[in-house]
Design goal:
Blueprint (H helix, E strand, L loop, with lengths): L6 E7 L16 E2 L2 E2 H10 L4 E8 L17 E5 L4 H10 L8 E4 L9 H14 L3 E6 L4 E4 L8 E5 L5 E10 H13 L7 H8 L4 E4 L10 H15 L12
Parallel strand pairs: 1-4, 1-6, 4-5, 7-11
Antiparallel strand pairs: 2-3, 6-10, 7-10, 8-9
Length: 246
């Protein structure tokens, strides 16, 4: 299967992670002696088709320069904005789209992404010549609550048959994603992920089923779970060679 020889990834990392209730932004909390951001970026760079990671940080960031990433020639930084989408766009605008016609965007707080899932996403989007995202089908019964009810009360049960949990990475044509996000921002449309911008612009988007353990570290108890998942991944034969960050 033919596809682009190399890919670039934008990692928005300008958020403050208020729900973690930590002393520093969640991407700089440590697991196994490395920050979450280091785990995430090193995992991405360990994939043979990913050659560059652009980390979008806050201009007030006081932590990035203390990480090992600052010395990595495959990592560059840009300054992000107030919202995640602003940080993503900042990263996108720094890319030479002729060199990297396709781009992945991945959450800084998803260090457990599986390399096989990355390959599956790249293969399927390139095979179909259509952007897409990693996602998992909803397994639980879904409830919608009554607006502003306190305590929260059930309004209705939602059919889960066609519902998916959106994950990252999400992979799209660089130029199309820039246009989609810019259009949405100009029209004051709320963009929660790259797929929502692509959807708004009218482009097709593939759902590529990924692993359920590609968790986003959002709350304090997620740290222990991520620690466990990373420990399990390190024991797998395909991960025994380490990463390019080591």
């Amino acid at each position: 299967m033919s596809h682009c020889s190399q890919f670039v990834v934008v990692v928005p990392a300008a958020g403050v992670g208020k729900r973690m209730k930590a002393q520093c932004p969640k991407q700089y909390l440590s697991i196994q002696g490395k920050t979450i951001l280091e785990h995430t970026v090193c995992k991405l760079l360990s994939h043979p088709l990913i050659s560059q990671v652009i980390v979008s940080i806050s201009e007030e960031d006081e932590y990035f320069n203390d990480t090992s990433l600052v010395h990595n020639s495959n990592v560059s930084i840009v300054y992000g904005g107030k919202e995640r989408v602003d940080s993503v766009l900042s990263g996108l605008l720094s890319i030479d789209s002729s060199a990297y016609p396709w781009v992945l965007v991945h959450d800084a707080a998803r260090p457990c992404v599986d390399l096989a899932d990355l390959s599956k996403l790249i293969d399927q989007t390139q095979h179909h010549q259509c952007g897409g995202l990693l996602a998992t089908p909803v397994r639980d019964t879904m409830k919608k609550s009554i607006d502003n009810s306190s305590p929260a009360c059930v309004k209705e049960t939602i059919n889960r048959e066609q519902l998916w949990h959106a994950l990252t990475p999400q992979l799209y044509r660089t130029s199309e994603l820039i246009v989609a996000i810019t259009q949405a921002q100009q029209n004051n449309v709320v963009i929660t992920d790259e797929s929502s911008a692509i959807e708004y612009a009218g482009y097709k988007s593939l759902l590529v089923e990924g692993r359920g353990d590609n968790i986003k570290i959002t709350r304090p108890d997620d740290l222990a779970l991520a620690n466990f998942i990373l420990s399990q991944q390190l024991q797998l034969p395909e991960n025994s060679k380490g990463t390019v960050c080591e």
